[in-house]
Design goal:
single chain, alpha/beta, globular
Length: about 220
C-alpha cells in the first residue's frame, strides 16, 4: 500500500485518480477546497477548506499531514482561462500563474520533508505549456503558467535526484471535465488510467520527463 497525496481531488481528474488509486489498495489524502459527495464516497482521507491562493492553507496542509510519510505526491489542482489580444485580462493571468505554477511548488516544498528515497512527485501539466507545440496562440496565462510549471519541475527533478526522489510532468489529455466544458477527446477514467501507468513507470532514470497520458514524450 502506497501513501498518496492528491491536490484538486474533489472533481475531474483528481477525483478519478483518487477513485482508481483507492481501489488499488492505496491510502489517499485528498486535498481540495470543498469536498464533493463523490469524493466523500471514496475511502480517501479528505483535507478540505484548502485555498491555494492563501498562505495559511499551506500551514493547514502541513498540520494535517504532520506525521505522514508520502510515497507519491500528485500536484493536480489547476485553473483555466483564455486571454487574447482583444481581452488581455492580467488579473486572470496572475491567478493562473499562482494556481498552476507557484502553488504546486509551494505544496511540494511544504511536504518535501515527508518524502524520502523512492518517493515520487507528479505534476499535472498541459501540452499547452510546450513552447514548441504552440501553433495556435491565445490562452496566454494558461500557456505561460504551465510553461513555468514545466521549468520548475525540471529543476526539481535535477535537484532531488540525489535524494532518490523522481519527478514527472503529465499532460492528462483533452479530458471531458468541467474545465473543458466536457468537450474533451477522452474520459476521466481513460485519463486517470494512463496517468497511473506513468506513475508506475516513473523512476530516477526518466525523472524530469514530460509525457502525454498515452505515453508519448512531449516537446518542450
Amino acid at each position: 500500500m502506497a501513501i498518496i497525496v492528491i491536490t484538486g481531488a474533489s472533481s475531474g481528474i483528481g477525483l478519478e485518480l483518487t477513485r482508481q488509486l483507492s481501489t488499488q489498495g492505496n491510502h489517499i489524502y485528498a486535498i481540495c477546497r470543498q469536498a464533493t459527495d463523490e469524493l466523500k464516497a471514496t475511502n480517501a482521507s479528505i483535507i478540505d477548506g484548502i485555498d491555494l491562493t492563501e498562505e495559511q492553507s499551506y500551514e493547514s496542509i502541513q498540520k494535517a499531514l504532520e506525521n505522514v510519510s508520502i510515497d507519491v505526491l500528485i500536484n493536480n489542482a489547476g485553473i483555466l482561462f483564455n486571454e487574447s489580444l482583444s481581452n488581455m485580462n492580467f488579473e486572470q493571468i496572475e491567478t493562473q500563474m499562482t494556481i498552476n505554477a507557484i502553488a504546486p511548488m509551494k505544496v511540494t516544498m511544504a511536504l518535501l520533508n515527508h518524502l524520502s528515497s523512492g518517493s515520487k512527485i507528479l505534476m499535472t501539466t498541459s501540452r499547452m505549456g510546450s513552447i514548441e507545440d504552440n501553433t495556435s496562440g491565445g490562452y496566454y496565462g494558461y500557456r505561460a503558467s504551465k510553461t513555468a510549471l514545466n521549468s520548475f519541475t525540471k529543476s526539481l527533478a535535477i535537484d532531488l535526484k540525489n535524494k532518490g526522489i523522481s519527478v514527472g510532468l503529465v499532460h492528462p489529455g483533452f479530458v471531458q471535465t468541467k474545465m473543458t466544458g466536457f468537450n474533451g477527446d477522452i474520459t476521466v477514467e481513460q485519463s486517470a488510467n494512463g496517468y497511473i501507468k506513468l506513475i508506475n513507470q516513473l523512476n530516477l532514470d526518466n525523472s524530469g520527463g514530460f509525457w502525454h497520458v498515452n505515453g508519448e514524450v512531449l516537446p518542450w
